[in-house]
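Re: Re: ligand-bound prediction request (bumping)

Still looking for help on this. To restate: I need the protein modeled with zinc ion bound, output as structure tokens. Inputs repeated here so nobody has to scroll up.
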Amino acid sequence: MKEAIDLCELVDRYGDDQKCRNYLEHIRWKGGVTCPKCNGKRVSSILKRDQYNCDNESCRYQFSVTAGTIFHDTHLPLTKWFLATFLICQSRKGMSANQLKRMLRINYRTAWYLCHRIRHAMAEAQPQDKLDGTVEVDETYVGGKKIGWGVYAGKKAKEVVVGIRQCGGDLRFFHAEDAKSGTLAKYIAENVSGDVDVLVTDEFAAYPWAMKKAGVSPEKHKTIEHKERVYVRGDIHTNTVESAFSLLKRGIMGTWHRISAKHLPAYLDEMTWRFNNRKNPYLFRDTMLKLIASNNLEYKELTKAA
Ligand SMILES: [Zn+2]
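Reply:
Sorry for the wait, this slipped through. Here it is.
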């Protein structure tokens, strides 16, 4: 199987602005340089090497490969965008803006903005198809003042995260309003196929009701005890939503430190994108593809109070 690129290869391949531009041209315009305004294919290079001129008489637009993309309006060198994307792709628990700031020698605001833009691109890439086979559903609490494991005290101040994972398949995280049966039912109905073989949950009392509301027959619902899950090692349980939750919590504790409810969904999307692509050797390329196609996310929009 092909290996993902490492940091040395990254620096070697995309070590200067021109190399980055060439790569972006390659992934953006597979069928040749195309005018972003009129989609015309008749273009010529002009003056500066990184500029093009549309030869369409009625258009005449001058552009570069970053025109109309999120790479354009930040004054950050492309090499730093590439490094930031690579580092975030490679960090299993995520990377804080502070860490990125130190590693790339950029100011905090820029680092924070980069993190959010890359995360946003990852979020746009989430798959929509329904999960099948054996699916596990679990809920956990994050945020609040005391970030930690499921202690009942302080749960009210925390945010609910619902995790759904297909055995040997994809993981999904959702920032839920609460952990009531109606809410759980909604996520089950939206993400789990009607033909699912088994749905596994813990003994939390809301699940039987949630199954009923989601139209899952009771024979398909299997319950495991929490204490059993903690102590059983090396079987299927270790590779479940619970382990993904623990990665999420370590990410929140060790990397992000403080999390606001407003940005939680973006963090969750980043975690799932990385988790679901952990064996994808083209993760960097796929993330770059999403970035170049990503919607602009205004700084003021990001910093607006929730
Ligand atoms: Zn044009």
